Amino acid sequence: MISIKNIQKGFSGKTIIENVSAEFETGKCNLIIGASGSGKTVLMKCLVGLIKPDSGEIMYNGDNFSRMNQDQRKEMRRKIGMLFQGSALFDSMTVEKNILFPLDMFSNQTKAEKQKRVDEVLDRVNLHDAHKKFPAEISGGMKKRVGIARAIVLNPEYLFCDEPNSGLDPQTSLVIDKLIKEITTDYNITTVVNTHDMNSVMEIGDKIMYMYQGKKEWEGTNQEIIFSKNDKLNNFIFASEFLKDAKDMRMLEIKGKIDNNRNMDEMLKS
Amino acid sequence: MLKGMFTKPENLRIYWKELMHQCVELGIGSLGIVSIISVFIGAVSTLQTSYQFVSPIIPRSVIAQIVRDSVILEFAPTITCIVLAGVVGSKISSELGNMRVSEQIDALEIMGINTKAYLIFPKIMAALIMIPLLVILAMVLGIWGGRFVGDLTGILPHEIYDKGLIESFVPYNVNFALTKAYTFAFIITGIPAYFGYNVKGGALEIGRASTTAVVTSCIMILLADYVLAAILL
User: Fold this and answer.
1) Which of A220, B14, B31, B123 maximizes the CB count within 10 A of its CB?
2) Taking the CB of residue A48, how many other CB atoms lie within 10 A of it?
């Protein structure tokens, strides 16, 4: 489990993250949602130590990450896997070498064992014939899957995904979401996902934190989010008229008022 | 940045591999351009020195001495390194800048790798190994270029040229040239690495960082050239 307490971060005198506290549970997909510029990515970079927060504490299973020295942090980071928004694959290496890299750097396995592990993780993300391809030769969805494979190759305890669905079509997004969910459950890891994709929220959001202008505005599950009375959250989720109508439909359905023989206008009026 | 480079490597074998890779990239990759420049510099030096030597009192072998000393003291280390500042410097700066912008450096950090040690240190070490070797090669090819052109044009037969080469030779000049080479090697890699590693923004900033890195490196090379000459000669 990861817990953060009163995280504060600003740049050039402007506060980006304001007193955010939260807990990210093990074996669950913990989602951080919010509009662009709400501070999601900065918060995630604080969590993994790429940005130093101005104040506050980050605890990984009780170990205070904020107070660790350089060596302890390096040690800790080996338990962390991260999928970046742009995948961040090493473009001078093939897919296979990208995944082999952390193994070469940190494991004492034999060449055959490493190759077996690479094949395993590529198989896990459903990539079977991309071993020798370079990142420039594969699609955006495949890059994300290679990014996930590289993130999980060292069996991390924590997985961070920054906007895993950005730039992907809805169908591929679903595949990536499903993969993240399965990996979280199968390996019982703590997964934190930054997203503003509502499909992901409903599909994989075991625990959701909504951020608005650098503050934690709402927290709950994907079952609760639809009934939230928080106006800012509702404005974010149901941004379009279509989604507002869809929400009304869902509410009516839940209240048992949908009658297939009546038209939608009547239903919405009732 | 320098302080951050000197930490215990996560995996010595990978660092060694990276050092060898950088030696090949930097050394073998620059072999062509260094060879061409050196031969032409030596050739032009012979022609121009000969053109200025009209007095019959001065022996023709002095031309070879002037070419030798010019090549060893100035042309081979300084001109070669200024060219390398453009070739190698822009490559290092844009490579690191691109890695920074596309979050590849962040990805390495997340893995628990000291990116300064892994990405910058091997480049500087490779330069310190390869650039003095390239400068020695430039000296040899520069002097040979002068000899070849002297023979080709008939200005200076190679027997006289060879005689001039061994006359009043000061071995210290080679040491001085190598001192320059080591200093310039550090400048050529350290400055572009700094600008590339600290890029913020996108493609435009990568280009700007490369230009700034090359211009700064060239100025620093000329400055260091003057300081070293003033101190060591």
Assistant:
1) B123
2) 21
Q: What is the pLDDT of residues B184-208, one digit of tens each?
A: 999 999 999 999 999 998 889 999 9
- Give which of A74, A97, A148, A159 to mutate to test B binding, by max B Cβ within 10 Å: A74
Pairing of strands A207-212, A29-34: parallel
Tokens 């690479």 sit on residue = A118
- Provide the pLDDT confidence category of residue B112 given band limits of 50, 70 and 90: confident
Put simply, whether B103 touches A (Cβ < 8 Å) is yes
- Say yes or no for a CB contact (<8 Å) between A74 and B112: yes
> Are A105 and B103 an interchain contact pair (Cβ–Cβ within 8 Å)?
no
Best to test chain B binding among A76, A82, A100, A105 (most B CBs inside 10 Å): A105
Q: Do A89 and B104 touch (CB under 8 A)?
A: yes
User: Is A233 a member of any domain?
Assistant: no
CA distance B112 to A201: 30
**Which residue in A84, A89, A106 is closest to B106 by CB distance?**
A84
User: In this predicted complex, what is the ipTM?
Assistant: 0.82
A253 plus A184 within the same structural domain: no
Number of independent structural domains in chain A: 2
Q: How far apart are CA A98 and CA B201, in angstroms?
A: 25
Q: Which two tokens stand for residue B36?
A: 């061409």
Tell me chain B's radius of gyration from C-alpha atoms.
21
Burial A194-223 (b: 16+ CB within 10 A, else e): bbbbbebbebbbbbbbbbbebbbbbebebe
The answer to whether A102 contacts B111, with C-beta atoms less than 8 Å apart, is: yes
> Which residue range is the domain that position A264 belongs to?
240-270
Res B64: pLDDT: 92
Residue B47, burial from CB neighbour count under 10 angstroms (0-12, 13-18, 19+):
middle
Structure tokens that stand for A216 in this block:
């934690």
pTM given for the model: 0.84
- Mean pLDDT in chain A? 86
In contact, B213 and B195? CB cutoff 8 Å: yes
Using the beta-carbon criterion (under 8 Å), do A105 and B11 form an inter-chain contact? yes
The model's pLDDT over A48-93, given as tens digits with 9 standing for 90+, comes to: 988 999 999 999 988 888 888 888 888 888 899 999 988 899 999 9
Asked whether residue A234 is domain-assigned, the answer is: no
Q: Are residues A218 and A249 in the same domain?
A: no
**CB pairs < 8 Å spanning A and B:** 53
